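Sharing a chain and its predicted structure for anyone who wants a worked example. Both blocks are below, sequence first, tokens second.
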Amino acid sequence: FIAIMEYAKALVPSFSWLALPAAQPRPFKMTTYDRCQRIGLMASSLEDLLSKTKDSLFLTCPLLTVVLEEDGTLVESEDFFCSLPNNTQFMVLEKGQEWAPVQVGDFKLTFDLYKLHPKDFIGCLNIKARLYGMYTVSYDIECMGAKHFMVEFAELLGSFIAFMCCPVSCADIPVLGVFG
């Protein structure tokens, strides 16, 4: 028996080339359940993804669930995670949260009228548009007179038309006040 053990020990170093290399980190995208926060992460495993998500989004819940953002498919095994392509979009859910699809046609437009000074004739106008709960355009008009108001309104209208006519990726258009 001792001879067999010695023989086995002698063979072990020769099989060291069979060890698999550590998985390289890959890029992924993560969002919260309400899609208000989005981050890009590099992760080499599902556990690594959960850890980095927790740290980046300041999540305190010990029980987190990862699903595919597009259809809510549960990602719970390392094999399934490894089969997903780079830049896969995930959603992290805390206890009690459930995946919901993006509401098509979800559009909210708000107008806030306020004065900087009591003697202002027209005051200021803040217009905020939120599209699909993800993209926000905000424009603040400080009205000092009728002519100034018309110029600001024309600029706002042009920016708004550009925002509404472009595809969902409006990040490349130099629209004033784009936050998300």
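Comments welcome. Confidence is low (pLDDT under 50) at residues 168-180.
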